[in-house]
């Protein structure tokens, strides 16, 4: 594939590798199936294939909960294409055939069951062929591969330890919770453990080879392969375990409260220590990009806002309602004193205050079922003794200093009514003092009791102060974002595409434009939110340096959105076709997708489900069943989408091929406004 292709306007499709149904898939898509899928895409005139992350997540189905930034997922390994498979005894080959018969007809793939079956087969095959594999590791091809992929040593050590500890998080291991590089090296060199370590190395070398061959086939078809690099690593990951110095372990990344998540999102992922990473010139990120560059010509930077500033909460909290931006120009005690707040009032605005009366009222009001005063009195007594300290002789209480977050409240074993009240009270403040005399405004500070106790003049002065610190912080964010993203741009020839959704500071689009990083435009969310009725932004006004799409992996498909979520009249008016049917069909799909395909964005990318709806052959009875993920839920449904038929079968659908090819030929609409970064 010519490099110039990444600079041309392209039609793209998003598909999880696991969704593919190749000619011999074992119940789940495998890396070699990408070559077959590229053949279909070429017929549809699709110029870009975008994947979800493909790193090893173990038995966790979310591709954004990776155990490693470098290792690939064994789920996507095609066992029959292993060099050793030809030497496999009949009983091993029988296991493969049985697994295929068991899983291949399921409408969604069974992540845990298939992975378990595959790992059992792979262990059996390794046991049969380990002598030959060990020879390759001594002085053959596997030895050379290990030398080129030094990360695999710590990965293999980590995976072995995780397996012998029944899959538990490294924080629950009886030993090796804290390790130094020399500890990992000693374990790697332990001859007694060599056999177990080489199993994981053998898998990763095979995965690398299969994925590289598939990526080459995609490139040979003239199609860009675009990867997805999640910005964060899970707490229980090889990288956090083996490289603790590049993370800040006391803080958990997430997202601030919004209309969908009133208490915010606490992802449980530690944040990066950028100052520590700068000391070795961001070597970890450079290695990560180098490995991704083996397969991809472009990549999605997940949650690019995190390079500018990350919303972080204490690991002592479940929610992120008391989170803060890191970095941030903090409000100081001096700032508050300049507003006229003495020591007592600073405590009033930064620590929750609870009166005796409101505690009793809350218990009486929230008690489930019948309760007499004696029971309520006992519950109140427990709260006062375990959770609160009285302020002198006042009828007012503060949380005990030992309570650092919601988890500490939870650990007290209080009545549910008391727990609920204290959780709510914990958030009731204007400022959160995250370090001594350093304060961050709580997200809902205007709803707090201390804020509403201020005079009008005090509120005005407080808002002026906070705006001043926001402006200071934005300059800090711009400097950090430009610095970190410049490292990524310089470190790789891959084209970076940013996922810049959420509460986007004004500095973000400026930095992305300066560095020529493509932003993201999701049509349903690209609205003028400050105007009445929240009108959609015309697609012809999207910047050329952008990727536009109709749906993402966390949203409904266009079909479900059209039938259940959107104001059909408003959107029909937006695309200039006021008579669209209420029921989604291939005609509606062509109309909506054609409008989006006419955007000025360099890449117009659609989920494979939305492309398939251009033909009436591939409609599921229930549109909700075609989703990839439903955020906020944890079940076997999420992340297990499969194509409704084999790739070869879909390839026979001439109506689909023709309709998709028509989308690829749509020219961009003429821009209506002056382009801004």
Q: Helix proportion of residues, in percent?
A: 40-55%
The overall strand count is 18
Radius of gyration: 28 Å
How are the strands of the biggest sheet laid out side by side?
15-6-3-2-1-18-17-16
Give a nutshell description of this structure.
The protein is of the alpha/beta class.
Task: Write up this protein.
The chain is α/β, with parallel strands linked by helices and 677 residues long. The chain is built from 26 helices and 18 strands. Strands 15-6-3-2-1-18-17-16 form an 8-stranded parallel beta sheet. Strands 5-4-7-8 form a 4-stranded antiparallel beta sheet. Helix 2 (90-103) runs antiparallel to helix 3 and helix 19 (456-491) runs parallel beside helix 20 (507-514). The chain starts with 9 loop residues before the first strand and ends in a 13-residue tail after the last helix. 42% of the residues are buried. The mean pLDDT is 94.
What are its keywords?
677 residues; alpha/beta; eight-stranded parallel sheet; four-stranded antiparallel sheet; 18 strands; 42% helix; 12% strand; globular
Question: What is the fold's blueprint, element by element?
Answer:
Blueprint: E1 10-14, H1 33-43, E2 48-50, H2 90-103, H3 111-139, H4 141-148, H5 151-164, H6 181-188, H7 194-220, E3 224-229, H8 238-242, E4 247-255, E5 265-272, H9 274-278, H10 283-292, E6 298-301, H11 305-308, E7 310-314, E8 324-326, E9 331-332, H12 333-338, H13 343-350, E10 353-355, H14 356-366, H15 373-386, E11 388-390, E12 396-399, H16 406-410, H17 416-426, E13 431-435, E14 438-441, H18 449-452, H19 456-491, E15 495-498, H20 507-514, E16 519-522, E17 546-549, H21 558-564, H22 568-575, H23 586-597, E18 603-607, H24 608-612, H25 647-650, H26 654-664
Parallel strand pairs: 1-2, 1-18, 2-3, 3-6, 6-15, 16-17, 17-18
Antiparallel strand pairs: 4-5, 4-7, 7-8, 9-14, 10-12, 11-12, 13-14
Helix pairs in contact: 1-7, 2-3, 3-4, 3-7, 5-6, 5-7, 14-15, 14-17, 19-20
